Fold:
Amino acid sequence: MALPKDFLWGGAIAANQAEGAYKEDGKGLALVDILPSGEKRREALWNPKVALNTTYDHYPSHEAIDFYHTYKEDIKLMAEMGFKVFRTSISWPRIFPNGDEKEPNEAGLAFYDDLFDECQKYGIEPLVTLNHFDTPLYLTTEYGGWRNRKLIEFYERYAKVVLERYKDKVKYWLTFNEINMLLHIPFFGGGLVIEEDENEDQVKFQAAHHQLVASSLATKAAKEINGENFMIGCMLAAGEVYPYSCHPEDMMKAVEENRKQYFFIDVQSRGEYPSYTDRMFKELGVEIEMEQGDEEILKQYPVDFISFSYYSSRLTSADPEMYKGATSGNAFKSLKNPHLKASEWGWQIDPLGLRVTMNNLYDRYQKPLFIVENGLGAKDELKDGTVEDDYRIEYMREHLKEMIEAVKDGVDLLGYTSWGCIDIVSAGTGEMKKRYGFIYVDRDNHGNGTGKRYKKKSFDWYKKVIETNGEKL
Structure:
């Protein structure tokens, strides 16, 4: 058997894409709560001033799939599939509505008590992200988001409250979701609204420094609260960047592009800024403002494991002319790889790239890995109470095969949680029609529908995969 007996199979969602109840029980507004769906969402994500000053017809996060009220029913279905682990996030503004309060919102804390108790009832380990694109909106409008060093203090206070509260219910924690997304969607990743006359790189990398210090302070708090009983991880939006050709300039370009994503994990895992950032920052005109003690806290409290999302590999070239045919998958600009097929949303499908990525991550850090997002977003058709999603099964089967090969290569892998194990609102487009789940949710892009849950064909397939610990794919 390739996978260990205690391998953590499961699925993943995010509070801001699933819970809804956006003002219930004292919750404050999150970044996502001002975003619309469809084409308007992309404009709002890259120009958040538009979103801050526009009233839209529909805000998908306000109701989402109503997980806030249906979690018992949904976790029961996950338990039926045999989940060993369930990745979700805590909504920061549900605990601290504005983000800068001194005392938490008890009603928000009580909800997650109930949620984690429900997981425990079925023997499911929660894997909890502290900040999954869920910075309180008030911290953007009043403080400028993560560009402001004060957010370190606010985040640390929030982290200490939830780590202490759930220390007997949650073992696995992630500090920030897809932390490198700060460079690609700065509003999502850091609550940043960047002015035209600003050095964008300076703002983003300074915000990144604040998040990296905050991540280490959360790790410090975790160790002080619960010692070795906690496992604290970082989280990367991963996917190896391939060179377009074997031309040395393309090879060097790929090295540089890979470093841009690994930079965050280099700091979180190794505890210091890598040497290549000296030149990178100089060429970008970036000067990181550090305070006394920052370097020490980074060094003393690295993460225990590396978690990551993987949807596709990427392709780069040193020739700018090549980018006229570029594609975009999960916010990353990439050339079209002629050897790969693509999903309906243009995300290139590369199962072997998962094995490549896993090997490179493990070779680089020698820390346990955890695949916490992977899956296929597709338009599903509900027919006779189910969805014949053979395309999803095929996608996942091929990726799981390569995952197992990577374990055979010697990679230490803790577990696998497929993304959107129940259909949720898409982060990038705000749509419901882009579905990832094993469970169909009867809601459309405009929030219409019964909300009823239906098992897809992939539900029984994944159940068998878990039962056999990956022996039967």
